[in-house]
Amino acid sequence: MNAGKLIEFPEPNRLGDCPVCGRNNGYLNVFKTHWYICRKHRLKWYAGYDLFPTWRQETRKDWERNLNILSQYTEVLARYRTRPSQDEGKTSSRRRRP
Ligand SMILES: [Zn+2]
Q: Which of these, 34, 94, 81, lies nearest to 26 by C-alpha position?
């Protein structure tokens, strides 16, 4: 199983959670963009751009692998327990394909 480079975010709930189960499994970077995922429900949601410096430690190979994983997930709108700090409506269904 290809787990990719999943980064666990210590603060759930800040950038949205799975709309089905209310949790997340951390995020994957694709260059500077961060995607949260729920493995159980195979859902992903866009978290933001260049919010975490973690992408700097990754390579193009990591991002390609992450993209591959993300392509198997369905894009959804995250559920927020608190008000999102980012402006809403930014969760466009922009698809990034290699
Ligand atoms: Zn879920």
A: 34
Q: Give the C-alpha separation, 79 to 64, whole Å.
A: 27
> 75: CA distance to ligand 1 center in Å?
12
What pLDDT score does 1 carry? 45
Give 28 Cα–ligand 1 centroid separation in angstroms.
16
Give the pTM. 0.70
Q: How far is the CA of 70 from the centre of ligand 1 (A)?
A: 15
Of residues 94 and 59, more confidence is placed in 59
